[in-house]
Specification:
- This protein is an all-beta fold and 100 residues long.
- The protein has one domain.
- Helices cover 0% and strands 30% of the residues.
- The protein is built from no helices and seven strands.
- The radius of gyration is 13 Å and the shape is globular.
Length: 100
C-alpha cells in the first residue's frame, strides 16, 4: 500500500486485483481536508467518478456517475483526476493508471 502518502505525493497507479496491494487509490486527504472532493475523468474528459465528502481512499476503479450501472468496473487505462480540498486552495490535478 501507499502508506504514509503525504499531500502532493499522489499515487499514479491503482491495481484493483484483490491482492491487498494498491487495490484502492489512497491519497490520505480526508484527515487533513474534511471537505475534500475527488473527480476522476476518462481519456475523453467524461466524468466517471465523484467522491462523497470527504474522499475516504476507497476508489477501486469503478464508476459511480448517474446513467452508469451501479459499480460498473472501468477498463484499464489512463484516467485524470481533480482534487478539490474544499478550503479555497487551487485544484490539484494529474493522471493515474488503472492496471488490471
Amino acid at each position: 500500500m501507499f502508506s504514509g502518502c503525504e499531500p502532493g505525493n499522489i499515487p499514479q497507479i491503482i491495481t484493483p486485483d484483490g491482492n491487498g496491494k494498491n487495490d484502492t487509490w489512497i491519497i490520505k486527504y480526508s484527515d487533513l481536508y474534511p471537505e475534500v472532493t475527488v473527480l476522476i475523468f476518462n481519456r475523453w474528459g467524461a466524468l466517471v467518478y465523484k467522491s462523497e465528502k470527504p474522499y475516504l481512499d476507497n476508489w477501486t476503479g469503478e464508476q459511480n456517475i448517474s446513467g452508469a450501472s451501479s459499480k460498473d468496473k472501468l477498463p484499464a487505462g489512463t484516467y485524470f483526476y481533480q482534487i478539490d480540498k474544499g478550503n479555497g486552495d487551487a485544484l490539484e490535478s494529474g493522471y493515474l493508471e488503472l492496471v488490471k
